Amino acid sequence: MQSFEHVVNEYAGNEKVPAALFKLGLSAAETGDTAKSRKYLKRVIEEYSTSDEAKLAKAKMAEIR
C-alpha cells in the first residue's frame, strides 16, 4: 500500500495514478477497512471517470456496499 500511496502523492499527473488509487481501494477492502476502500474508489471514479479503473471501481463499490 505504501508504494501505491507514493505513486499517488509523488506523481500526481502520471497515467499510473488511477491504477494506484484503484489498488489502494482493493487493498483497503481486503484488510476490512471499507470506509477507506470507498474513499479511494470514489476518488478514482470522480477524478478519472474515463479510465478503465473507474469502471472497475464502480463495480467494486457496488460489491462492498
What is the CATH fold-level name? Serine Threonine Protein Phosphatase 5, Tetratricopeptide repeat
Largest sheet: none
Element-by-element helix/strand order: HHHH
- How many distinct helices? 4
Number of domains: 1
**Uncertain stretches of 5 or more adjacent residues:** none
Q: Any key phrases for this structure?
A:
65 residues; mainly alpha; Serine Threonine Protein Phosphatase 5, Tetratricopeptide repeat
Give structural notes.
With 65 residues, this protein is an all-alpha fold. It has a single domain, classed as Tetratricopeptide repeat domain (Serine Threonine Protein Phosphatase 5, Tetratricopeptide repeat). Helix content is 77%, strand content 0%. The chain contains four helices and no strands. The protein has helices spanning 2-10, 17-30, 34-47, 52-64. Helix 1 packs antiparallel against helix 2, helix 2 packs parallel to helix 4 (52-64) and helix 3 runs antiparallel to helix 4 (52-64). It is globular. The model has no long low-confidence stretch (mean pLDDT 95).
